[in-house]
Design goal:
- By secondary structure, the protein is of the alpha+beta class.
- It has three domains: 7-59, SH3 type barrels, CATH 2.30.30.40; 61-122, Roll (SH3 type barrels); 124-182, no CATH class.
- The protein is 21% helix and 29% strand.
- It has a six-stranded antiparallel sheet. Strands 4-3-2-1-5 form a five-stranded antiparallel sheet, with no helix packed on it.
- Strand 8 (95-100) and strand 9 form a beta hairpin.
- The protein starts with 6 loop residues before the first strand and ends with a helix.
Length: 182
């Protein structure tokens, strides 16, 4: 069962145009529970909404590193250290389609790609020392937190890149912060 606002992935059981949408990331926006469908979902890439059955959706770990990637991101292949651009993301199979500078395209598993930020490779793999690991985890947490904010708070974002949140959300965030500090 999925909860309201939870992220999910359209799987191979989908009848809405497989293989066109298999592997796409969606947000549960309504729990319809009709005789025909269980949920109404919103595709995060297009904003389109459709009704789906429970069996057409798969869970995704909200901390899965594939959620750090976006179409258009500059990334580096770990095998040949060549910079490329993400052209498609398959969240179901945890794969990225990337385009190289010569126009060639390849599908790579998420473990075979490193995200690039400010010209530096972001990776949790191959960290040599505990302090290096801590620095990378902190950098990963910042990128992950920003991605979560982009996804879940997008409807509250103002034109000037600030957010206007309902009091109920602010109360929940403060409560979570208090629990984390104990």
């Amino acid at each position: 069962m999925f909860k309201l606002n939870e992220l999910a992935v359209v799987n191979d059981n989908s009848r809405i145009g497989t293989p066109n949408h298999a592997g796409d990331l969606v947000e549960i926006i309504e729990t319809e529970r009709t005789a025909l469908y269980d949920y109404r979902v919103k595709f995060l890439d297009s904003g389109d909404t459709v009704p789906l059955k429970q069996k057409e959706l798969s869970k995704i770990d909200p901390k899965d590193e594939i959620l750090l990637f976006n179409v258009g991101d500059k990334v580096m292949t770990n095998s040949i250290n060549e910079e490329c651009i993400v052209t498609k993301i398959d969240y179901l199979h945890r794969q990225l389609e990337v385009e190289f500078s010569d126009g060639a395209r390849r599908v790579k598993g998420v473990k075979n790609i490193s995200k690039i930020k400010n010209g530096k490779r972001l990776t949790l793999l191959g960290m040599s020392s505990p302090s290096d690991r801590t620095d990378k985890m902190n950098e990963f947490d910042v990128v992950y937190s920003n991605r979560v904010a982009d996804i879940f708070l997008s409807e509250y974002k103002n034109d000037d890149d600030t957010y206007t949140l309902p009091a109920s959300i602010v109360d929940k965030l403060l409560d979570l912060n208090r629990r984390d500090s104990l």
